[in-house]
Amino acid sequence: MSVLPIVICGEPVLHRPAAPVTEFDAELRALVDDMYETTVAAPGVGLAAPQVGVGKRLFVWMYEEQDEAPVQGAAVNPELWIAPLEPGLPGEDEVEGCLSLPGERFALRRSSHALLRAQDVDGKPFEVRASGWFARILQHEFDHLSGLLYVDRLVHPENRAAQKAQRKNGWGGPGLSWLPGVDDLEG
Question: Angle CA(185)–CA(186)–CA(187) in degrees, nearest 5?
Fold first, then answer.
């Protein structure tokens, strides 16, 4: 197992839909193991394959503060349904971050409930009902598979602050990445 470089906003793989996983083999299991190790090193609670430069429909989560699913899991070729959003602007308790925008955090309203249907690394189907922060994590990682970053969903004034942070950090073009545990960045 090894820690993988995480690509930063502007890398093309982050901004296009990911392709379905068609082979459930040792290479897929090794990628998932590396993604878990990278998530721990970052540290994070989830990581999508496009964030490590792999344009496949796959994400992992590592989140202990829920009892709806295993603490650690991988969702291959996921489908996600969410409950309608509560009206209003996001609150202070809805601040989100992303390993592909390291060190930045912005408020985003997400659905409080989600239903995930996916396959595990062996191709076996499973289903998870999630609420609270775990539902937020699933929505965040699922968005990566559609070519969306959470900053793409921000509303004013958060979207302006995110654009300013991206300019300040020099993000927005290809070729930028960071290595958790080596580079002095926080995601």
Answer: 125
Residue 119 in domain = yes
| DSSP conformational letter for 23 | -
Q: What is the CA angle 179-185-187, rounded to 5?
A: 90
187 assigned to some structural domain: no
Nearest-angstrom CA–CA distance, 76 and 95:
27
pLDDT tens for residues 68-119? Answer: 999 999 999 999 999 999 888 898 899 999 999 999 999 999 999 999 999 9
Annotated catalytic sites, by residue?
A: 141
Cβ-count burial of 136 within 10 angstroms (0-12 exposed, 13-18 middle, 19+ buried)? buried
Instruction: Report if residue 30 sits inside a domain.
Output: yes
Which amino acid type is present at position 64? E
